[in-house]
Amino acid sequence: MSAVEKRSVTIRGHRTSYSLEKPFYDDLVAIAAARQLTLAALVAEVDETRPRDTNLSSALRLHVLDWAKRGTHL
User: Fold this and answer.
1) Taking the CB of residue 10, how many other CB atoms lie within 10 A of it?
2) Which CATH number is 4-69's, of 1.10.3990.20, 2.60.40.10, 3.60.21.10, 1.10.3080.10?
């Protein structure tokens, strides 16, 4: 299993961090590229739409899972 890595990003003018396993991070980067977004823009979008009781790392994992379940190929 892949180790969890902590990463930082600036969204809407403030620094925040999230922790993801490498496969999730790699897919997130691929999703951003497929949508022609920066990684920071994609993370901001997920952050903006996530339920407030869900942490950012979990929301990012669920976004990757949802993308995969829709059959969108990276």
Assistant:
1) 11
2) 1.10.3990.20
